[in-house]
Amino acid sequence: MVIAIAQLMVVLDASIVNIALPDAQKALDISYADRQWVVTAYTLAFGGLLLLGGRIADYAGRKRVFIIGLLGFAGASALGGFAPTQGWLFAARALQGAFGALLAPAALSLISVTFVDSKERAKAFGVYGALSGAGAAIGLIMGGLLTQYASWRWCLFVNVPMALIAVGLAIPNVRESRILGKTRYDIPGALLSTLGFVSLVYGITEAATAGSGWGSTSTITFLVAGVVLLGAFLVVETRIDHPLLPLSVILDRVRGGSFLAQLLLGAGLFGMFLFMTFYFQLVHGYSPIKTGLCFLPFSVGVAVSATVASQMLPRVGPRPLGTLGLLMACSGLIYLSFITATSSYVTSVLPALLLMSLGLGLTFVTISSTALFNVPFHESGIASAVLNTTQQIGGSLGTAIFNTLAISATAAFALANPWHGPALPPGASPPDALTHGFSVAFRWGAGSMFIAAVIFVIMVNVDRHHLGQHDDVGEPDAIIEATRLMGESGS
What we know:
With 491 residues, this protein is mostly helical. Helices cover 79% and strands 0% of the residues. It is built from 18 helices and no strands.
């Protein structure tokens, strides 16, 4: 029950904030270039610190870290709800991500150590996985209700009572557990990797701000600094005794291909949710509740497809299944790129969402298995965390890049096609120009999915027989991992 509440809170946060974002942008006067920081501040902190968070939970005590994560997440959510400025909100979202990086691995570890009986553990993981999938759908509805009838701020405040209830239940009911022995935390690795990705995202965002561009000094400086910091991170990881990321985990051909595919998948997927939320609310004028309902078929499609994929994987093998899923997602984004400001949801949006969701259900289950292919037992937890990290980092970079491209395309279209419709609010872009910018972003997202498919078919050279012999995860765990990834993607 305790872990279920915590997992539901983490998953709800992603989808709730997506629905609330247009209202938050208006209330805090967030620019189009900076709006993506509401998403990327969280995902960068969460993804960048996730590996360190798992290590801290193992050695400092899983119950202790779990409670600290809950209280910190609640405090950061309250700070975000009270945010008077955009900078305050961005900082609160980053703080949420940092405490989420403590909370998520501690919660998952507690299931393993609390439920020692295999049948009870399977039931617990089943509840965990079900909440990961269902929580995203619940968040879409709850986000719409809170934003429309209360305020976008309550989409953050709602985490506070949930976290406090979980803490109250955890103190008497969860037993402490930890790995004995001394360990060294790779603080330099965590800082270098997180700062490197933040610098890259900031440089990409600078390219979309007025008076800057891809060739501006500030843009180039931050991009170069990001590359240097990430290069230093790789050097550090090869020279310390307890690296945050053992390079052997990612240098295997099959696992490396899976992580790259997941990175590119996250890039295309996170941006889609951001732009479709603005398309529904700014172009079509949908209410937050109606926007949430528009995304529900996607959640249902992933859940159905993941169930089918779990049955097909042992028979078909990962390469054809994963490649097909990525190509379906690519096709869905291409279909979506043809939307106009007057497009119908039923004919122009719904088919694309269903095609994407059915493809991604196949892909999530497949990648969840191949990312842990032939991994040593003592590194299976790290490999699983890397899979989640790559999705979060890919989503951060993709959202920043595609948001910059969308803004540039919107500005160019508005300049070439003057608006002759009703007067617009100050700083607002015409609906047709906004839609054109979203369409350009969807095409780039489709390209990201296509490259992921090419990488998967070339690098993940393992058939169903090898997967069955060496996979340490297995079908049930793959489904759990898939539903968790789907929930945390913000769907």
